[in-house]
Amino acid sequence: MTELHISAVTLNTTPLAFRRNRELVIQALQSKATERADFILFPELCLSGYGCEDAFYRESVWEESWKSLLALLPFTLGRTVFVGLPIFHSGFLYNCVAVLSQNQIKALVPKIHLANTGIHYEKRWFHSPLQRIDDRYIPEFGLEGALQTEIPFGHFLFVSNRVRFALEICEDSWVSKRLSHEYAERGLDLLFSPGASHFALGKREIRHRIFSETSRSNQIVTVFTNLQGNEAGRAIYDGGAFVCQHGRLQKEGERFSFREHSVLNFVTSLSEIRGGQAREKRSHTDSFVRESIPVLNLGEWNKPKVKDFRNQTTSEILADELSPFEEFTRAVSLGLFDYLRKSKTKGYTLSLSGGADSAACAILVDSMKRFAKEELGDSIFANLGINEKNLLVTLYQKTDNNSEITEHIAETLSKELGCEYHSIRIDSAVETSLQLIQSVMKRELTWAEDDLALQNIQARVRSPLIWLLANMNGHLLISTGNRSEASVGYTTMDGDASGSLCPISGVSKEFILQWFDDILAGKNRYIQARESIRLLRNTRPTAELRPLHEHQEDERDLMPYPLLQSIEESFVGLGLSSQDCLKRISDLYPNFEREYLKKQIERFQKLFQSSQWKRERLAPSFHLDRYGLDPKTSYRYPILSGLD
Asked: I want to staple 265 with a disulfide (CB 3.0 to 4.6 A). Which of 96, 313, 412, 518 is the partner?
């Protein structure tokens, strides 16, 4: 029986950090966990970083990535290593995986199907070959340390030590017409899929279905690995390498790890794979296709003898499934940690209003701190040059329009979290601004005539003060808007929209409130129920920008948040017309009058249209759900537009 030892490595890479990315790969190659591996799979574009964006156009990026590739060759004796990098070949730039073995670059495999939906924009930078390639690549940057003058470039069925294996790079595994089906007709045993598959709520199950079904229909072993962490600022990668065989998930690595790399090990046998093929495999392509796939023989070698390979792993299958609210907690916490670490700042400053959004941000920063210390040790923040006691600083800025309950919630939450808390009154600053403008306008501003201006000036006066505090601390300023507010422009530019990062704008207000309810119900294993959460859930969301006697409420200013979310999903997520949107919303909300729903849909569309300029200026955000509104990565919409 020929045992096959497979390692799938997840990495926390950083775009353009060539030395750091290379060192992470080498650390994994030198670790005990990969010592006996026959095959070691690394994520997509891990040498350059996946999120280089227009820096991919620079020749220096290709050259530095190539130098990193050559530096890996001494670590490839007795095994096959797959590692990703950009390659410029014959006038085109390709997203490639290099196949390394025996101190040689055995082949370069270009990605065929480029991810170009949602947050991905690969066709801007890379060329799609549209069909299989069988070519030769002559390196422009030298081959020091390698033992060949040209390298096979294209799509091959590789053979080594009797094992037949092939590659599908991330999106190549998500399309309907896949190379793996054709490889399977020639006796494929192992399919390796290096990915840069961003986190989104519910996406993990889709990955599992894709690769488990591929393993069943072709009777092969499918191996997927992924990036982990907040790589470039907006996308969060949840790791979660896994292996499927016999149509089932066999083993899965840890997700949302704060470590820089994790290794998942899996052992199978050639006899087991071939036996399954003999029993279960069915042909599904024409015979001429089978003959058209080039086979590349990589030769044979003896691997080093190491005992207990199965136990030399840093991650195991997770016994417990995470709820969407727990995934959200882990993802945002990881995103906040990497954003802090990679930006080399000292912590976060937050304008704490006593409402749900700012409270959620504070709690998530606290969760980030706990997760980081649990995984990386109590000294992690000291090692990063961060004073843990100063990691989160909060400020409540009150006016006569703020209620006692919101100040109490803000203060209570800060005490519960043990973070630095301050409270100041800003009425005099607001009044100074009003007096200056009234002297110019030669009239007094009134709520009857200047409602919006009088609301916004309070938010705008708060902005320079919280920025001042953040600058004094050497902190990033957290902006607290959610996706629902972004969709209708329910935010003050240069006011509450100010910030370095907006960690929760990838989810709706409805989701945030449900997240709190889930915590209070004791269902979120990562966050305990707190008195402050109970208090804020008994308080209706309000901006507190109008006089208290008006009892301002967000849902009166807008519409019920569940309805807003449903309209937003119909209009943005599903792309429905006004008429189709009305039909869908009417079915979802039969207790509302149809005319009322029609007016709310029309109102939403007008607000969405007129608020695009605001979304263009919002702080960077994390992509967390199936769709988002960040025009940089998710939903691109004209600033000037008209509605039918």
From this structure: 313
Question: Virtual CA dihedral for 21, 27, 29, 35, nearest 10 degrees?
Answer: -160
- As annotated, the binding site includes 197, 203, 456, 480, 485, 614
Q: Which of 44, 64, 260, 411 is catalytic?
A: 44
Give the containing element (helix H, strand E) for 442. none
Give binding residues for deamido-NAD(+) as ranges: 456, 485, 614
Closest by CA to 164, choosing from 249, 37, 270, 265, is 270
Q: Which of 96, 106, 111, 568 is catalytic?
A: 111
Which structural domains are found in the chain, ordered by start?
Answer: 3-311 (3.60.110.10), 324-555 (3.40.50.620)
Buried b (16+ CB within 10 A) or exposed e, 472-497: ebebbbbbbbbbbbbbbbbbbbebbb
pLDDT in tens, 201-218: 999 999 999 999 999 999
pLDDT digits 0-9 by tens, 410-465: 999 999 999 999 999 999 999 999 999 999 999 999 999 999 999 999 999 999 99
Task: Encode pLDDT of 228-243 as tens digits.
Answer: 999 999 999 999 999 9
Among 70-79, 186-195, 282-291, 461-470, the least confident range: 282-291
Is 369 a known active-site residue?
no
Residue bearing tokens 């060949």: 148
Distance between CA atoms of residues 569 and 575, nearest Å: 8
Q: Is 123 labeled as catalytic in the residue annotation?
A: no
Name 444's Cβ contacts closer than 8 Å, sequence gap at least 6.
Answer: 438
Cα distance between the two ends of the chain = 68
CA distance linking residue 497 with residue 611, whole number of Å: 13
Helix (H) / strand (E) element for 157: namely: strand 157-160
- From the list 170, 244, 361, 502, the catalytic residue is 170
Q: Which one-letter DSSP state was computed for residue 322?
A: P
d(CA 303, CA 160): 12
> For 18-27, 53-62, 178-187, which range has the lowest pLDDT when averaged over its residues?
178-187
Query: Which distant-in-sequence residues (6+ apart) come within 8 Å of 29 by Cβ?
Result: 40, 72, 75, 76, 81
Q: Is there a contact between 331 and 297 (Cβ–Cβ < 8 Å)?
A: no
CB 108 within 8 A of CB 97: yes
User: What is the Cα–Cα distance from 471 to 467, expressed in whole angstroms?
Assistant: 6
Residue 348 has pLDDT above 60, yes or no: yes
Question: Where is the binding site for ATP, in residues?
Answer: 480
170 included as an active-site residue: yes
Secondary structure class of 21 (helix, strand, coil): helix
> 97 pLDDT exceeds 60?
yes
| Burial (CB count within 10 angstroms: exposed 0-12, middle 13-18, buried 19+), residue 587 | exposed
Q: Is 162 helix (H, G, I), strand (E, B) or coil?
A: coil
Torsion, Cα of 339, 343, 346, 348 (10° steps) = -40
DSSP state letters, 554-577: HHHHS--HHHHHHHHIIIIIS---
